[in-house]
Amino acid sequence: MILCVTSPYPDKWIATNSQNLVADTVNEQLVLGGIEGSKHDDNVRYELNIGRAKVGNKLLTGKIITLDTYNSVLYVVDGWQAQEVKEFEVLVANN
């Protein structure tokens, strides 16, 4: 996966978890990875952030969905299997 940014400063990863993502990044600018949801989902749309986690001996990158202040989940794919990860790092802009 290639991440392209226009900032002259490299982005950084912040260690966090499902319950503390919002608190751990209160003064940070999370890198937006996309938006998920549609009119067919009762107009529920989620901003997706970029995360990574060590799963076994692999460092996997995936999408973070934040449902509310204390409920975020990183979804990664290992082979053909999607997994939820509760301890992860989130990509933030290094302004």
Strand content: over 45%
The portion of residues assigned to helices is: under 10%
- Using the alpha-carbon principal axes, give the shape: globular
Give the class from helix and strand content and strand pairing: mainly beta
Number of DSSP-assigned strands: 8
Rounded Rg: 14 Å
What is the domain total for the residues? 1
Pattern of helices and strands: EHEEEEEEE
Mean pLDDT across the residues is: 85
* Distance linking N and C termini: 22 Å
By DSSP (H or I, 4+ residues per run), the number of helices equals: 1
Low-confidence stretches: none
Largest sheet: 8 strands, antiparallel
Structural summary, described in words:
This protein is 4% helix and 59% strand. It is mostly beta strands and 95 residues long. It has one domain (12-93). Strands 1, 2, 3, 4, 5, 6, 7 and 8 form an eight-stranded antiparallel beta sheet that branches. The mean pLDDT is 85.
Keywords for this entry:
mainly beta, 1 helix, 8-stranded antiparallel β-sheet, 59% strand, 95 residues
Write a brief caption for the model.
4% of the residues lie in helices and 59% in strands.
What's the structural blueprint in terms of helices and strands?
Elements: E1 12-17, H1 21-24, E2 29-30, E3 32-37, E4 45-55, E5 58-68, E6 71-78, E7 81-85, E8 87-93
